Amino acid sequence: MRKSFFRYLLPVSVALLVASAAVFAQPRSIEKATIAPVQVDLAPASFEAKYEGGFFGYSKKENGTLKFDDVNLRLVFYGEDQKEKFAVPYSAMQAIYPQSKSVTSTAGSVVSHIPLPGAGLAGLIREKRRYLVMHFDDPDVDDARGVINFKLETKELLDSVIRSIGEKANLLPRGDAYVRPKTKAGS
User: Of 153, 175, 173, 155, which Cα lies nearest the Cα of 165?
Assistant: First the structure.
């Protein structure tokens, strides 16, 4: 009797385990989280930015100023000499979004290479760099598209600039980004 009991115990316990897993594996409805949109202030009319590249003909990185030229419906970059370097019309903008990169600071990198006990821990000193990334259709060149990168100082400034450009260029919000939806063929 005892042998037959143990012979059936293993298959029965496996069957119960499978049945209980099947009960808990039933699909559950997904609750939609309601996220309140974060209110961001509008950007100032002009602000400091570092051009990192992406506009045709301007490969040199340069500190300067970005200004909203609402009269001519464009965003203008002025170099260190306060002369206009280039401008991107709002109508040419296709997508704008923030990007951040965490890097070891220059001081942390230098100190981490000093041959002292514990100096290697300075390599853990990180700083966050924030970039405004803008996809655009070049208005001066047929079928040419570009991606411009600007380094901005603070997250608050970056968020406000993205919101301001998105609204001025009539782009639609998508998460942290603003995009221009494709136009459907035949419309």
Answer: 173
Looking at the whole model, is its pTM more than 0.70? no
pLDDT score at 59: 84
Q: Provide the token pair at 1.
A: 């009797």
Task: Give yes or no for a contact between 138 and 146, defined as CB atoms under 8 angstroms apart.
Answer: yes
Concatenating the DSSP letter of every residue in 68-107 gives EETTTTEEEEE-TTS-EEEEEEGGGEEEEEEEEEEEE-HH
| Ordered strands of the 145-152 beta sheet | 84-89, 74-78, 62-69, 46-53, 145-152, 126-137, 93-104, 177-179, 172-174
56 or 171: which leads in pLDDT: 171
Number of other CB atoms surrounding residue 16 within 10 Å: 10
CA distance 47 to 44: 7
List all residues 6 or more positions away from 164 whose beta carbon is below 8 Å from its beta carbon.
Answer: 42, 43, 68
